[in-house]
Fold this protein.
Amino acid sequence: MTILYVLFAILIFGVLIAVHEFGHFATAKACGVQVDEFAVGMGPALWKKQKGETLYALRVIPIGGYCAMAGEDEASENPRAFTNQPPWKRIIILVAGAAMNFLLGLLVILCLYAGATAFRAPILSDFMEGCPYERADGLQQGDRFHKIDGHRIYQYYDVSDFLSQGGSSHDLVMVRNGQKVKLDDFYMVPVEYEGQENKMYGFYFGYEEATLGVKLRYTWDTAMEFGRMVWMGLRQLVTGQVGVKDMSGPVGIVDLMAETGQNAASTADAVYNILYLGAFIAVNLAIMNLLPIPALDGGRVFLLLVTWLIESMTRKKLDPKYEGYIHGAGMILLLGLMAVVMFNDVIRIVTG
């Protein structure tokens, strides 16, 4: 069964990359840019077909893919070359890959929530006897947590996560009878309750009926939660709380997906959990690809804007080969990082 989960995980990862490249391909075609090749996978071609000006290929390694546009990193006399398009068209083409990943993540989440009848929500349905926070100037039954210390509350478990941070006093924003109520410097710590082994805040969360509107809202909120998790991870990486050894690449991600499936209680749960993880990775890819790092789509957009600004000021067109050199150097560094991460993943799997 494990090998099936591995293959399923590889398929999902391949789809994520293919969808990303399709975003570039579709928008390039729509903007009139010449696309020389659109490939799904990497390495030698298993199948290829020339249709018009574009070569379509299916390649042997199921992780990766590319959309090769004419004049992507070099000067060209072709009026349909990428570098000869106005900046707004190039930006749309570059951003389209990440946008498709994000939309795919949303679609997967929506499909997973399609059969839901109710969602557990950050809504106070009741309080334990003696809870000190249930009062006229405090929390009340029916309140919905909206923000804690400036952090948006998307899921019910966000409440305990953010209450456990930042000390004992918190700035709360609650939604009460359709209106936002602010509770500044609200003292709230877990306390002991009779019959409970651990200290608790003393309130219970309720449920929302899963109407179509609620499903759409929870789909969006889940994607936002995923995005916040990615930014928090990046912040930990920049501040040194985590290091390169804690990062995972394609090998580690596939292994995590397979392990997630293997540990599920049933095959249906395994598929659900793997797809949920796949949706998280889709949102992750969307955000990571828009970072202003050379060789990534965000880096290309950033340098495109810098180039446009310089050309606007100097009235001289810069040779795109220099931008190509920067992206080439960035790609070498990224490949080096990927090699290190992949090595760590393999060692972790072998020794784990």
